[in-house]
Amino acid sequence: xxHLQVAPWIVVIPVKRTAIAKSRLAAAYPQHxxxxxxxxxxxxxxxxxxxxxxxAVLVVTDDPVVAADxxxxxxxxxxxxxxxxxNEALEHGAAVAAAEFPESGVAALSADLPALRxxxxxxxxxxxxxDRSFVIDLPGxxxxxxxxxxxxxxxxxxxxxxxxAHQASGAVPxxxxxxxxxxxxxxxxxxxxxxxxxGVGPRTADVMSLVLGAATxxxxxxx
Length: 223
Prior knowledge:
This protein is α/β, with parallel strands linked by helices. The chain contains 8 helices and 7 strands, in the order E-H-E-H-E-H-E-H-E-E-H-E-H-H-H.
């Protein structure tokens, strides 16, 4: 890939409608859960766009607010035409990427990586030299990134137990250290607390400030 004169990767990020996204955060953040889900997606998108190995970011979503926010950040929005699930959305986005950027690899990225560092994403993309590679999440059972080289089908297997599913499909797990921000997806309040310790992006930090203000009574609403 070193001979390419453009960044060699197209990143595809699927974003569920935030009215129903991140349901496991509802107990801890009943009012701010939709805002957090949107913030995660925007911060993830912005971090991906900042990687020098990323040529473009395609966000697959039917959420109009997310669409406006990620467009402002510099991403392109692809309507979730299948509208039937995460893997189908990724297949749709990957097909668009392959048609428009056939010389580039396609990397599927989780939308809930609010602490993502561009350098850590760049490290993982640079290490993705197999036909298909993936990054295992911090709990060790899920997947936060799946990368397929130019002309190789993405074949996403996201969902419960996706790390084993991706490995069984022939994808190679990336054995990298110091990429915790890429491995820290957020499903629970404990996950979010850890992401905050790592250092979240500006949109998530803004929402967390609202949450803190609500908790201390300075905002006049309850979180």
